[in-house]
Structure formats: structure tokens, C-alpha cells
Design goal:
The complex is a heterodimer of chains A (488) and B (499).
Chain A (H helix, E strand, L loop, with lengths): L5 H7 L1 H19 L6 H25 L4 E3 L4 E3 L1 H20 L9 H18 L5 H19 L6 H32 L4 H7 L7 H17 L8 H8 L2 H8 L1 H17 L16 H21 L4 H22 L2 H28 L13 H4 L1 H15 L5 H15 L8 H26 L14 H19 L2 H4 L3
Antiparallel strand pairs in A: 1-2
Chain B lengths: L2 H15 L8 H22 L6 E9 L4 E7 L1 H20 L7 H20 L3 H10 L1 H11 L4 H29 L7 H6 L4 H18 L8 H8 L2 H26 L6 E6 L2 E3 H21 L4 H22 L2 H33 L4 H4 L4 H4 L1 H14 L6 H16 L1 H26 L17 H19 L2 H11 L5 H4 L4
Antiparallel strand pairs in B: 1-2, 3-4
Helix pairs in contact in B: 1-2, 1-4, 2-3, 2-4, 3-4, 3-11, 3-14, 3-20, 3-21, 4-5, 4-6, 4-11, 5-7, 6-7, 7-9, 7-10, 9-11, 10-11, 10-13, 11-13, 11-14, 12-13, 12-19, 13-14, 13-18, 13-19, 14-17, 14-18, 14-20, 14-21, 17-19, 17-20, 18-19, 18-20
The chains are: A mainly alpha (488), B mainly alpha (499).
């Protein structure tokens, strides 16, 4: 299928085009209503336009399901990619709506536009099997995220975190590109399927090993896996809440999906195995080590945090470790598990950052600032309870089923029966550890006495509704996982 | 029908969380929900002809993983559901005086009850585990918010112990699910799957200990005394009365039925122990004696009861390890009996005595003339104490006697240890009774003026005493439920034609 007319291509890319056009519309609208208007009004306008654009895109995807593979895998669209795109759009809508009441920047139009550009990047990212387009969309996503992290110009922390993010990110992109170029040299192709075909014989030469390490490093940075995680705590702590939510949620989903695709499709035949005491060389043992390190380090360091945002950052590293188990298992079921886990996790983190952003308006986001929150904002606290318990994996919330599904599918894989048991044992043990620090947050909220001057926190009604909806969604997805599973 | 026990409890919790409900109505709603649950249980009991497994609800839940929403009850679960109903009512009656954040208190209380009902009624292991975990979080908050002595420490300790236990269970569950083909989580189907023996050999102890932690298995029992002591009265009643039974129930219902070969001899001996069966019997006996001995030297009244729980739960575990019918009967009866009696003891200590005197030090109590000041509490405690040390006529006697008979044919040496444990239990019960209520040293002339025992307390105490007496006088009624359950196909692997 080398010949595709432009109109057909436009039709295939319509969702991405719609998101991009919406971004431009938001910019234009923000210019039109003039920069002198109330930030409140500008945020609302921007959010409304972005929401309408994203919803329109979702409707478009639902209305015209596509199944295509054009230009040798440059653009691969199927039911599953469309599902992921819908999920990404929904996450973006939630983030945008939650940021409506904030006032962290005077560049309102740019904020929404860049958020939408990032979304378009993610949507392209998950629908390509060509390393060139993958790299380009990854850079579109990453550059948008750097800008979003730095958007709060009034805070020097935000600038510092963004610079750190940018420098680390740029370096890791170079590594990734280096790895991909080695792959191109080995296979004379940029298509993942053809690459896999070309590198099959001989099985694992040194050059391929270098490529594997470079690519794992590049993607490992994007998904904040240990030991490439150093940017995460700073960015989570200092970036504006809505940017942090985007970085930790939908960007994570897209990052893990494409990490999975590249490794599983592009390196088919060079998997190796990570079974206990009988591992064989390939990319799986590399990912297994990264996963194990992420789970252990993320959870243990999270215990000592006093800032809720940093706590969420380290817990995000740990959750990244769990999700990497799906790569280690790399079965069809484990990809479903990855999607379920990543999507529900992203929902939860958007909610958690939504709560944090409201609490920090009243002071800070240290653990002590959450003291007695249940008496100052009961609904907000109930939502946070759901988010924290879901992250800790307590049924009947989505986090529990995600973990169960992920661990069960990991254990079913492996070259020998129960060969991956060591990873699952580590993961279960570490998620028990994680409950300790999630309970620490809840302890502040429900048990500690509120500060004497603490008054009731006024939560904007829109945020309250969205947060409740997210909490209900997590409960619902946990009680009836089939709602999501049957689409995977 | 029985499924409504679960739904009513969770609905009650939900209603209590609504912002419009006045705090003063909370206890009423909680009592209503508890009574409704109990009524549903009784009507379910009346309609079952025998104790065989009967499905209540069976729906597909997560079809792609073969997980089902399957609730079913046999005699053992009915018995424990009944126990939960009784203790739940008594618990509400004994927390009638909760004013601080009462809506949240009763909401968490009902959520805990709902989880417990769910565990006892689940016939799908995944579902069982879900309910098991649901029960952990409310415990944490109940103790940490409304507790006393070192409440935050005790709550976190209890939560971590429970979570470590359930992590062990989860690992084995996932492994068993995968080995059995990842197609079903049904308890019956898994129990009939022949797991490889070497797998059972490590899966069984891991899961038994995982559940056993919650049953107060020595040496993993240390959460129990601190947790019980710190908890508010109703929570310690539930903890000792029902939650510890969750652990024992899990041991019997899941660990032992799924991996019966895990109890087989190893083929070698270490320190005279030749199988996990021996190891856990030994731990149970150590628990009995150790718990009793530690209870004997406590200065805090509530710690006496807390350690006595460890001792009495040792009988349950010993009964499970006898692997014969009479021992298992005894274990199940002991779960019921200890559930009722521990709840009663904690009610006396926590509500009737501590809430009035504001001290639990036996030395301080002995100067207070309590048998004169609150004679009702004294009488109740005497009844509960003699029942729990095994006075014929009460439930403790039939339960512990059967455990001992069962153990006699399995491990005669253990009976000696258990007998010593009973002897010590007489001593600590007597010591606590004498010091707290009937001391005559250093008495002031007049009894202090304490608020009289209220009506809810009287009703609550009466309910529990009657339950214990009923079982003690006519145990056949419960045995009729338990024996058919033990004869069901679920226990095929364990039975091996022994009974």
C-alpha cells in the first residue's frame, strides 16, 4: 500500500488534525478576547474550546472506525489504537477541565495549545510502527511537556525543574536516536516489523545489544524508570499541577504503549528470558532489571518523602516498575493488562493532582498541609481516599484489579512455569510497602487534627464534580473491570 | 437472600456517608442495618435443611479471566455469618455512647461488617480476597481515630500485619490460578485441581501463615494484643470476635482445601518435625500456652483479654491441624464460641469498666469496689470468664473438648501442652476477676459513684451470653450444620477417607 491519495490520508489522520486545529483555535480565541481580560475568563474559554475539540475528535473516532496500515507501517490504525487514542483524549479533557479554576500562568492560550499539541503527539505516537515517525511524535510530545513544565514563570522552581527535564530529556533523546540509527544500520529499514525480520539472524550480535541498551535507556527516561528517573521528583514537585498531571498520566500511557510496541514488535526474536536462575540474553532481562529496580527504589524512597507531590513522583516510578512487568511478559494478555493498568493509573493520578492543586492553594503541598483535610473538605478527602487506596491496590478499586491482572498475566508468561515468580513476589511485596506511605497521606487527612486556623476549603464546583466523577470511575472500573476489558 | 447481609451493610455505610444524615441518627441506622443483617441470616438458617453448600448468587463477572461473582454458603459459613450478625448487633449496642465523628465511625463499622460477611459467603477465591482486603482498611481508621493507648502505632501495626498476610495470600492465589490454567478462580474447581505436590509444599505454608497472621498464629500474633487494646470497644469486639475468624476461616476454607498435600510428610525430619502439619500444630500449642502465660502477668485489664484471645485462637488452629472430623468440628465451634466470648469480655472491659473508671490498670481497679459499683459488669465478666475457661454448659467447653479429643488422636503430646494452657487460663481469668471486681485490699468505705449500666449495654451483654449458653447447652444444632459441610466435595482432598 504505497499509494494513498492525500484525501484518504487526511481522512485517516482526521483525529490528529482536529486536535491540532483546536489548538490553533484556542490560540486565536485567546488573542481575540485580548490579554487584558480576567485570567478566569480566559482559562474558561480555553478549556471549553479544548474540551469541545477533544470531544468532537472522540465522536469522530467512534463514528468512523478505521482499519489501515499505510506507508509500510508508518501509520497503523486499528480498533486498539483508536481505543488508546480515545483514552488519551478523555484524560486530556479531564486535565483541561481541572485546570479551569487555576491561574498559574498568563500564557493561557499557549497553555491549552501546547497541551493539545502534546495530545496530538501522543495520538500519533501510539499509531505508528515506523521508528522515524515514532521518534518525531515522541519529540513533539516531549517538547510540549518541557514547555508545560516551565509554564509557571513566576516560580524559579518550575524553571529549574523544566531545565532539568529538558537537559535530561534531550540527552536521552540523543541516546534513543543513536539506538534507532544503529537499528537502521542493522536492518536497512525504519519499519519495526522489517527490523525484527532483519535482526533475527544472527540472533544477538554486539551491535544489537548496544542498540537494545540505548533504546531501553531512551524510553526508560520517558517513562521515568530507575535509573533514569532523576528528573521525575523535581518536575512533579515544581511544575504547575495540571502539567504534572499530564506528564504523569496520559504521557505515561502513551510512553508505555510505544515502549511496548517498539520492544515487542521491533525486537521480536531477540527477547531472551528473565526467568529466575535461567535467564537468557535479550532485551527482556534488561527490562526486568529496570522494572525490579524501579519497584524497589520508587517504593522505598517514597516512604521518606514529606511532600505529597514528591511522594506521588516516587510512587509513579514504582508504578512504572509494575507496568514494565507487562513488557517482561510480552504476551497478548499482558498488553491488555498494561493498557488497563496504565489507563486506570493515569485516571487516578489526574485525580490526585487535582486534589493536590486545590490543597496547595491554601498553603503548600507538604504532608502536614493535608492535616485534618477530612473536616475542612469532606468531599475532596473522600476522593483522595479513593485515589490513594486505588494506587495502593485495595479492592474494589481499579488499582487492585489492575495489579491482579498484570501480575497474573506476568506469571502466566515466562519460559518455564512460574519462571517470573521472583518478579511477581517482588511486586506484591513492594505494593504492600507502598500502602504504608499511602496510608500516611490518609492518616494526615482523616486522623490528624486540622490546624487551628484552618477553615473549610472552598472547592470550585466544577473541580468537585470532575473529581467525584473520576473517583466514581475508579470504583466502577474496579467493581466491573469488564467495562474496559471488553474493548481491549 | 443471604447476599443481602453484605448489601445491607454496605448500603448502611453509604447512607451514613451522605451529608444530610444527622449524626444523632447514625447509631440508629447502624443498629437497624446490623439487625437487618442478623434477621436475613436467621431466615437463611431456618430455610437451609442441612449444612451442604448452597449457591446464593452466581454471575459471570470478569469472563475473560474466568472470575465469577459467586456467593454460596455451607454450614461453616452460615455459622460464622450468624456469629458476625450477633457480634455486629452487640457492637453497635456497646458503642451507643460514641459522639465524636459518629457518622464516620458507624460507616466504617458497617463497611467492616460488610467485608466480613462477604468473606464468609464467597465461593470464588478472587471474590473472597476482595472482601478480605476490604475489611482491612476500616479497621485501620477505627483504631487510629477512635482508639486509646498508642492508637496510631497499633493501627498501623495491625494494618501492616494484615497487609503482609494478604500479600502472601495473593502471591499464592495468583500462582495457583496460573498453574490451574488461568481459567477459573472458583473455590470448588481449584480444590479439585491436582496441584503438583512440590508446589503445594511451599504454597500451603505461605498461604496458611498469610491467613494465620490474622488468626493470631504465634509468632505472628503481636498485632493482636496491641490492636485490641488500642481499639475502641466495638472495634475490639469485632477484631477479636470476627476478624480473627476471617484468618482461621481462610486457613480452613482456602489454604487447606486447595493444598491438602501440603500437609503431607516432607520425607525428612527437622527437630522432630516431619511436616507442615507438625510445625503448625506446634505453633498452635505454643500460642495457647504463651498467650495464657503472658495474660497471667498483665497489669492492664484489656491486655489480659487481648492475650487470652491469642491463647483461645490457638485452639482453633490446633483443631484445624488435627485433620480429623472431631478436631475440625471443635475448631469451627471454637471460632463461634471465642467470637461470642471475646466480644463479651471486651465489652465488659472496654465499655462497662474503662468508659466509667477511665483506667484499665488492675491495681487501680482493685481499689474501686467494682462488684458493688457495677454489679452487672461483674456478673457478666464472671459468666464470660468461666465460659471461656471451659465450664460445661457454655460454648467454650464443647468447643475445646472436641479440639482436645481430636488432637489426642493426632498428636497426644500436644494435648498435654493445651491442657497446661487451659490450667493457666483458669489462673489468669481468676486473677483478673479477683483484682478487677472482688478485691478487698485497700478498699475505701464506699463504692465510687459510677454511671449505671445502660439499657443498650444490658441488651448487648444478654445477647452474647444467650448465644454462648445456647451453643453450650445444645451444640448438636451447630454440629448439624458443620458436619455436612465437612463432608462436602470441597473437603475431598483433606478428608482422604478419614471421616
Amino acid at each position: 500500500m504505497l499509494t494513498v491519495s492525500y484525501s484518504a490520508l487526511l481522512h485517516l489522520l482526521l483525529p490528529e488534525v482536529m486536535v491540532t486545529v483546536t489548538a490553533l483555535l484556542v490560540l486565536a480565541a485567546d488573542l481575540l478576547i485580548s490579554r487584558t481580560a480576567q485570567p478566569r475568563l480566559r482559562f474558561t474559554t480555553g478549556a471549553v474550546i479544548s474540551c469541545i475539540g477533544c470531544m468532537g475528535t472522540i465522536v469522530q473516532i467512534l463514528r468512523a472506525p478505521q482499519q489501515a496500515n499505510v506507508f509500510d507501517g508508518t501509520l497503523v490504525i486499528g480498533p486498539q489504537t483508536q481505543l488508546i487514542q480515545i483514552a488519551l483524549l478523555i484524560l486530556t479533557i479531564l486535565i483541561v477541565v481541572l485546570s479551569m479554576g487555576s491561574s498559574f500562568t498568563s500564557h493561557v492560550g499557549e497553555y491549552f495549545a501546547v497541551t493539545l499539541f502534546a495530545t496530538a503527539g501522543m495520538m500519533l505516537l501510539v499509531s505508528s510502527e515506523n521508528v522515524l515517525l515514532i521518534f518525531l511524535s515522541l519529540e513533539l510530545l516531549s517538547l510540549s511537556l518541557y514547555v508545560l513544565a516551565a509554564l509557571n514563570k513566576r516560580s524559579s522552581h518550575s524553571a529549574e525543574a523544566a531545565l532539568k527535564y529538558f537537559l535530561f530529556g534531550g540527552t536521552s533523546a540523543a541516546f534513543l536516536l543513536f539506538g534507532l540509527s544503529l537499528l537502521y544500520g542493522l536492518s536497512n529499514s525504519t519499519n519495526l516489523v522489517q527490523i525484527a525480520h532483519a535482526i533475527k539472524n544472527p540472533p544477538l550480535n554486539p551491535l544489537l545489544a548496544v542498540a537494545i541498551v540505548m533504546i531501553v535507556l531512551g524510553f526508560g527516561f520517558k517513562v521515568a524508570a530507575v535509573p533514569f528517573h532523576f528528573w521525575a521528583p523535581d518536575v512533579y514537585e515544581a511544575a504547575p499541577a495540571s502539567s504534572a498531571a499530564l506528564i504523569s498520566s496520559s504521557a505515561k500511557v502513551a510512553g508505555f504503549v510505544i515502549f511496548y510496541q517498539v520492544m515487542v514488535i521491533g525486537f521480536a526474536g531477540a527477547e531472551g528470558g528473565a526467568d529466575w536462575r535461567s535467564s537468557t540474553p535479550g532485551w527482556v532481562p534488561v527490562v526486568a532489571v529496570v522494572a525490579a529496580l524501579s519497584m524497589v527504589l520508587g517504593n522505598l524512597v517514597a516512604i521518606t518523602q514529606t511532600s505529597v507531590r514528591r511522594l506521588l513522583a516516587y510512587s509513579a516510578i514504582a508504578h512504572g516498575g509494575y507496568i514494565l512487568l507487562a513488557l517482561v511478559a510480552h504476551t497478548e494478555q499482558s498488553f491488555d493488562a498494561l493498557l488497563y493498568y496504565a489507563i486506570t493509573y493515569a485516571l487516578t493520578l489526574i485525580g490526585a493532582f487535582g486534589v493536590v492543586s486545590i490543597v496547595e492553594q491554601g498553603g503548600g503541598e507538604k504532608l502536614s498541609d493535608f492535616a485534618g483535610l477530612s473536616r475542612r473538605a469532606p468531599v475532596l478527602s473522600a476522593c483522595m481516599l479513593v485515589f490513594m487506596l486505588s494506587l495502593g491496590g485495595i479492592p474494589p478499586l481499579a488499582g487492585f484489579f489492575g495489579k491482579f491482572f498484570l501480575f497474573a498475566s506476568t506469571l502466566s508468561a515466562g519460559q518455564h512455569r512460574l519462571g517470573l515468580l521472583w518478579l511477581v513476589v517482588l511486586a506484591v511485596a513492594m505494593s504492600t510497602v507502598s500502602l504504608y506511605y499511602y496510608l500516611q497521606v490518609l492518616k494526615r487527612i482523616y486522623i490528624a487534627e486540622p490546624p487551628s486556623e484552618g477553615r473549610r476549603i472552598q472547592v470550585p464546583i466544577v473541580n468537585q464534580i470532575v473529581l467525584c466523577a473520576i473517583a466514581l470511575g475508579i470504583l466502577l472500573l474496579g467493581c466491573a473491570p469488564n467495562l474496559l476489558l471488553r474493548w481491549l | 437472600m443471604l447476599a443481602w447481609t453484605i448489601y445491607i451493610s454496605f448500603l448502611g455505610a453509604l447512607v451514613l456517608m451522605l451529608p444530610g444524615v444527622p449524626p444523632r441518627a447514625a447509631r440508629g441506622i447502624a443498629l437497624l442495618a446490623a439487625i437487618a443483617g442478623f434477621a436475613v441470616t436467621v431466615s437463611g438458617l431456618l430455610r437451609t435443611a442441612n449444612g451442604a453448600m448452597a449457591t446464593i448468587v452466581h454471575r459471570s463477572w470478569i469472563p475473560s479471566l474466568g472470575i465469577e461473582y459467586h456467593l454460596a454458603a455451607d454450614g461453616i459459613s452460615l455459622l460464622l455469618v450468624l456469629l458476625t450478625g450477633i457480634v455486629a448487633i452487640a457492637g453497635v449496642l456497646f458503642s451507643w455512647n460514641i459522639d465524636h465523628r459518629s457518622k464516620e465511625f458507624f460507616a466504617l463499622y458497617l463497611a467492616l461488617i460488610g467485608g466480613v460477611y462477604g468473606v464468609f459467603l464467597s465461593a470464588d477465591v478472587f471474590l473472597l480476597f476482595v472482601f478480605y482486603e476490604i475489611a482491612i482498611i476500616p479497621k485501620y481508621f477505627l483504631i487510629a481515630i477512635w482508639g486509646s493507648t498508642r492508637r496510631e502505632y497499633a493501627a498501623m501495626k495491625l494494618a501492616l500485619y494484615s497487609l503482609v498476610g494478604s500479600a502472601m495470600v495473593l502471591i499464592v492465589l495468583i500462582a495457583a490460578y496460573v498453574i490451574a490454567g488461568a481459567k477459573t478462580m472458583s473455590l470448588l474447581a481449584l480444590s479439585q485441581f491436582q496441584f503438583p505436590v512440590h508446589f503445594q509444599m511451599w504454597a500451603f505454608p505461605l498461604m496458611f501463615v498469610g491467613f494465620g497472621i490474622l488468626a493470631g498464629l504465634w509468632p505472628f500474633h503481636t498485632w493482636a494484643p496491641t490492636g485490641h487494646v488500642a481499639a475502641p470497644t466495638a472495634a475490639s469486639m469485632l477484631l477479636a470476635g470476627v476478624v480473627m475468624k476471617l484468618g482461621a476461616y481462610g486457613c480452613l476454607r482456602v489454604a487447606m482445601t486447595l493444598f491438602p498435600r501440603g500437609l503431607d510428610p516432607w520425607g525428612f525430619t527437622v527437630l522432630g518435625l516431619a511436616s507442615w502439619n507438625d510445625v503448625f500444630s506446634l505453633l498452635a500449642v505454643i500460642g495457647i500456652v504463651y498467650g495464657a502465660m503472658v495474660a497471667l502477668v498483665q497489669q492492664d485489664f484489656k491486655f489480659v483479654v487481648g492475650y487470652s484471645s491469642v491463647s483461645h485462637m490457638g485452639f482453633v488452629l490446633l483443631g484445624l491441624m488435627t485433620l480429623n472430623r472431631i478436631g475440625l468440628n471443635g475448631a469451627v465451634l471454637q471460632m463461634f464460641s471465642h467470637g461470642v466470648l471475646a466480644a463479651l469480655l471486651f465489652a465488659v472491659v472496654g465499655r462497662m469498666v474503662y468508659d466509667r473508671t477511665h483506667t484499665r490498670e488492675l491495681a487501680a481497679l482493685s481499689k474501686m469496689h467494682l462488684s458493688k459499683a457495677i454489679p452487672f459488669a461483674a456478673v457478666t465478666f464472671v459468666l464470660a470468664a468461666i465460659a471461656s475457661i471451659g465450664m460445661p454448659g457454655f460454648s467454650g467447653f464443647v468447643a475445646e473438648l472436641q479440639v482436645l479429643i481430636g488432637a489426642w488422636s493426632a498428636f497426644p503430646i500436644c494435648v498435654v501442652g493445651a491442657g497446661i494452657g487451659i490450667a493457666i487460663s483458669v489462673a489468669y481469668a481468676w486473677r483478673a476477676m479477683q483484682k478487677a471486681f472482688f478485691s478487698d485490699t485497700g478498699l475505701k468505705d464506699t463504692a465510687p459513684l459510677l454511671p449505671p449500666i445502660s439499657m443498650p449495654e444490658r441488651f448487648g451483654a444478654l445477647t452474647l451470653v444467650i448465644a454462648s449458653l445456647a451453643v453450650g447447652l445444645y451444640p448438636q444444632w451447630l454440629l448439624n450444620l458443620v458436619i455436612p459441610a465437612l463432608n462436602s466435595p470441597l473437603f475431598d482432598g483433606l478428608r482422604k477417607g478419614h471421616w
